[in-house]
Structure formats: structure tokens, C-alpha cells
Design goal:
two-stranded antiparallel sheet; Cytochrome Bc1 Complex, Chain A, domain 1; 6 helices; 20% strand; single chain
């Protein structure tokens, strides 16, 4: 077994609570309350409140990834992940990241086979600003997408 495979097996065993009695393992798993909403435009919102720290995480998932690409025409999901940081109608190139950092937060994105996501973690009083940033790039990215951005 490769070292990485042994490591994965160990992680799986620990996550499964293999060393704990069944009752203790069940008690060790925290219950995280999640509310689910579907907005009129079809957007699904999952909300889990935790008031133990004054921060909020906004994580937007798009159900598109490399599985949606054809052989010979790959990389587009990841390319668009990067485009989403290159400005929108109301936010200049680099402005999204700058706004999050100026708010005292962090931002990133990732692409997998199944999805592309973008997230910000900021002080909780910045939630509305983060939602505005995400909504703007979701709704107006294509208005400012051009050849220069593609070349970059």
C-alpha cells in the first residue's frame, strides 16, 4: 500500500470513530442545524447559524465542473472560476478580492468534477456586502467579459 493510501485509510478509520464504542462515536458527532430555503429564482440557500464567533462564511456553489466538459475541450470550468475574480459590471478587476480583504476577510474559490465554488469569510457585519459582491458577479460577469480578460 502506498503511503498516501495508508494515510487515507487512517483518516477514514479516525473519521468513522473506529476506536470509539458506538454510543461514544454517536455522541462525538456534532449536530449542526441547517435551514434550507429556495428563492423564487431557484437559488437554494443553506443557512447554519453559529453565534460563537463574530464571523460569517459565504460559500456559493455552482453545479458545474469538469464533468460538464467534453474530451478535447476541457479546463473551461476552472477558467471561469478565475474569470469570476476579474471584475463585473459594478466591481473593477481585482475589486472583489480587495473588498473582502479591506473588510478583514479572506476569499478563494475552487473547481472540482462536480462543482465550482467561491467563498468569503469576513466579520459578520460584512455579510450584506459579501452577498452583494456575489450577486453582482453572478449577474453581470458576462457583461464585462472580453478578449483581454481571456488572454490574461
Amino acid at each position: 500500500m502506498k503511503p498516501s493510501m495508508r494515510h487515507r485509510a487512517l483518516v477514514v478509520a479516525l473519521l468513522a470513530g473506529a476506536a470509539l464504542p458506538a454510543q461514544a462515536a454517536a455522541q462525538a458527532i456534532p449536530r449542526i442545524p441547517v435551514e434550507r430555503y429556495t428563492l423564487p429564482n431557484g437559488l437554494t440557500v443553506l443557512l447554519s447559524q453559529d453565534r460563537s464567533s463574530p464571523v460569517v462564511a459565504v460559500d456559493v456553489w455552482y453545479h458545474v465542473g469538469s464533468k460538464n466538459e467534453r474530451p478535447g475541450r476541457t479546463g473551461f470550468a476552472h477558467l471561469f472560476e478565475h474569470f469570476m475574480f476579474m471584475g463585473s459590471k459594478n466591481v473593477p478587476p481585482g475589486g472583489h478580492i480587495k473588498a473582502v480583504e479591506n473588510a478583514g476577510g479572506s476569499v478563494n474559490g475552487s473547481t472540482t468534477n462536480e462543482r465550482t465554488n467561491y467563498y468569503e469569510t469576513v466579520p459578520s457585519n460584512e455579510l450584506e456586502a459579501m452577498l452583494r459582491l456575489e450577486a453582482d458577479r453572478m449577474g453581470t460577469l458576462l457583461e464585462v467579459l472580453d478578449q483581454a480578460k481571456l488572454d490574461a
